[in-house]
Amino acid sequence: MSIIEISRDEFDQLGIERMGFSPERGWFKSTELDLAGTIIRDPFDKDWSYVLLAKEEDGAYRYLEGEVSLKTQQDAESKLYASALRIEIAGAFQEELYAAPESKGEDSSALIVTSIDDEVKRYLKKHPQKLYELSPRKFEELVASILKDLGFEVELTQATRDGGRDIIAHVRNAVSSYLTYIECKRYAADNKVGVGIVREVIGVHHLRKPTKSIIVTTSFFSKDAIQEAEKMESQLELKDFTDIKGWLQLY
After folding, report:
1. Fewer CB within 10 Å, N side or C side of the chain?
2. 0.85 surpassed by pTM
3. Measured between alpha carbons, how far is 90 from 206 in angstroms, rounded to an integer?
4. How far apart are the first and last CA of the chain?
5. Residues 53-61: what's their mean pLDDT?
6. Is the pLDDT of residue 97 over 70?
7. Which of these, 247, 182, 245, lies nearest to 212 by C-alpha position?
8. CA angle 103, 190, 96 (to 5 degrees)
9. What gap in Å lies between CA 196 and CA 19, rounded to an integer?
10. Do 99 and 132 meet the contact criterion of CB atoms below 8 Å apart?
11. How many CB atoms lie under 10 A from the CB of residue 123?
């Protein structure tokens, strides 16, 4: 087992973005892969969660998988160890950061995108499953481009930005200004966005106070995530694979 427990200071030195505002009670990392994790105690529900993060191509650690509503700290630690060990045995992260072609032949089906334009969007309209072959950054660029086409002024934030706002979007007119934060998650189809991500976005929303926040994913949302988002009523929207396919119908 190469998952070891580390101190809070060692965890912070990895440059990991804070996942939320619930107190963390344990910190871990892999000595084999760029994996790190934390155990969290919910101060209100008094239950436990674990979060496993992977280092992406921009050098930042971001959410890979996790689980909430666990009864004990031991349950959370056991789940984290099991999850990390499974990934280590596989030798790679389940969510690939880039989809590289297996060969350089012309029959390769991998999607290599250097820039987002209408031609790319028309291609993705016909082949929406190719969304999973975009890198996380290219997915952010795609969402930003679609929002721009829908009339927003968009700013794609730096890769080292605070969590909860990959894209900052404005609608401005003579009467008012409408500010929206968009968090993008290019996840595999079977890797649902969990409640931890929703809580992170809610925390940033309350701190920075945009008009609305949106989470956009190539996957779907867990039941707990949907229920948590409903507490925000009109201030938080969840957009999944089906919604993205609907957006692409514009092209």
Report:
1. N
2. no
3. 39
4. 49
5. 76
6. no
7. 182
8. 35
9. 7
10. yes
11. 16
